[in-house]
Structure formats: structure tokens, C-alpha cells
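From the pipeline queue, job 12 of 40. The input is one protein chain; the requested action is below.

Action: predict structure.
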Amino acid sequence: MTSFENPIAIRHFQSICDSCQDLVTRFHSPSDLKLYSDGYLQALRNCNALELKDQEKLERLIERWILDSSSFINPDSEENKGFFK
């Protein structure tokens, strides 16, 4: 199962994805995205914002999403050339 039932987890997933998309448009590397997402996820862990199962699922999905180059396709259907050279 790769979907969330918790609307708060969905909002956090979308927030991380939106921020990473913004970072990609400013030519940040995959390691920069990983640092950003790790910090975000650690903050969620520290404040116990999500149940443990939702937190773990979010961490797995974000890691896969960042590593998947198809996550960073421009609206004109072209891969972001500045990101994956």
C-alpha cells in the first residue's frame, strides 16, 4: 500500500514534494533535496505529528520519490535538464 489514510500525512507529503520541486527549479542537487526532506521528517518525528506507521510510510515514500527522476518532469513534459545531467 502506497497511499495514506491520514489527511495530515497527505498534507506533509505534498508540502515536501512542493518544496523539493521548488528547489529543483533553482538547480539544487538530489543530495540537497535529501537534506531538506530529512530535516522536515526529523521535525515531524520530534513533535510526534504523525503516528509511527504514517511517519515510517512517509519516510519511505519521500525517499523513493526523490530518487525517481520522473518526479521532476517539467509541465511541458521534459525532464528538468538542470537537475539530472
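Job complete. The CA atoms of residues 11 and 17 lie 10 Å apart.
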